[in-house]
Amino acid sequence: MLKVEKLIPGGQALATLENGKKIFLWNALPGEEVVEYQTIKNKSSYTEGIATKIENPSQFRVEPKDVCYLSTSPWQILNYKQELIEKQNIIVEIFREHQITIDQPEILTDNKDYFYRNKMEYSLYWNHDTNQIELSFHARGSHLKSPIISSSIERPEILKKAKEIITELNNRGEEARKYQSLLLRCNQKGEVSGGLYENHKPHPTFPSLKDVIFGYEYSYSPNGFFQINLPVYELALQEIKKHINTDKVLDLYAGVGTIGLSVARNKNLTLVEVDKFAHSELVKNVTKEAEFENGNILAILSKSEEVLDYIEPDQTIILDPPRAGCDKKLIEKLNGTRPKTIIYLSCNPATQARDVKLLLENYSIINIKAFNFFPRTPHIENLIIMEKK
């Protein structure tokens, strides 16, 4: 029997085997006793598994909505209020591991914990009993596919469209092995775009979608990066806007421009994006409004670490990097030039804490807020505001 100690940043529960080796368990919560588990990975220093039989369940355990919850949203077993507390604790723990002491951050949410995702990618599964294609997800820790009985984290319009596409494939007598996956995205109006990815063929470009943020319309490709949970994203933008206190703003890792254009469109704004498809959407979003004709906004196609000459002391810098965090050359340039304010929004607090630690010699943390972009999952979006000392 294993006594669960706590939830860790990866989302699993931590316990210790009889031989002293650590085990990371899905489907388990702090304080529970795991009687049986399935091993999905066994390394010399740790084991990963899925709890299959539990005694003395946690007071915070709830019944998951979906059979496939371990594949899509493994914290469906956790009371939502407690989910927020656990995420606050995890952020504090991550920063402590990087020798940074912070208070427990406020975590903001719109309290909509299901049917929030505006993008979903499904696998296709061949049912040998019915000789038909079914929607599926990969089972946690496995290459096996599990057919979808219900899925409650994406917007209903997406699942409805996915089922229509599968029905059409079955009516045509298609086979699942022809396809890599099915990607669909919808906007706040419920309009859906996307489609099938075929094996051994280039991914098609799907019709762009449009959404309104802070009263302004943005265009984006279903294939590319765009925020998954727009209502909570707007909460983050509201907080970011409070800290734009210079006339010059540099938005790095800008994507299609939703941060910079939402919070600093009236400033001397430079936006940098490396992905050519996202950059093309960024240019559309910059140039379609007549007010941009005054030339106060510049969109650059480049890696953020390759435009270091654009960093100036009298700027506000906006950082929203991928999970890997910021390039070391960029951090060194920030320390050397020392812009007035750094606004760092991250989908990975671990790499964020790593980067922030390198900036603390010249900067002070003045605000931290977390945002629950991904309810029922362990993923956390964290915002750090830093000012030059």
Summary?
With 389 residues, this protein is of the alpha/beta class. Helix content is 23%, strand content 32%.
Report strand %: 25-35%
Helix/strand order, N-terminal first: EEEEEEHHEEEEHEEEEHEHEHEEHEHEE
Q: Could you name the ranges where pLDDT drops below 50 across 5 or more consecutive residues?
A: none
Mean pLDDT: 94
CATH architecture designation of the largest domain? 3-Layer(aba) Sandwich
Number of helices: 8
From the 3D structure, determine the CATH topology of the largest domain: Rossmann fold
- Main sheet strand line-up: 7-20-21-19-18-15-16-17
Number of domains: 3
Please give the CATH class of the largest domain: Alpha Beta
CATH superfamily of the largest domain: Vaccinia Virus protein VP39
Q: Cα-atom Rg, whole angstroms?
A: 22 Å
What does this structure look like?
There is one protein chain. This protein is 23% helix and 32% strand. The longest helix is centred in the N-terminal third of the chain and has 18 residues, at 80-97. The N and C termini lie far apart (52 Å). It has helices at 69-72, 80-97, 156-171, 230-241, 258-264, 276-287, 328-337, 349-359, and strands at residues 2-3, 6-7, 13-16, 22-26, 33-42, 46-55, 106-108, 119-127, 132-138, 145-147, 179-186, 192-198, 209-213, 216-220, 248-252, 268-273, 297-301, 315-319, 341-346, 363-371, 381-388. The mean pLDDT is 94. The protein contains 8 helices and 21 strands. The protein is α/β, with parallel strands linked by helices and 389 residues long. 40% of the residues are buried.
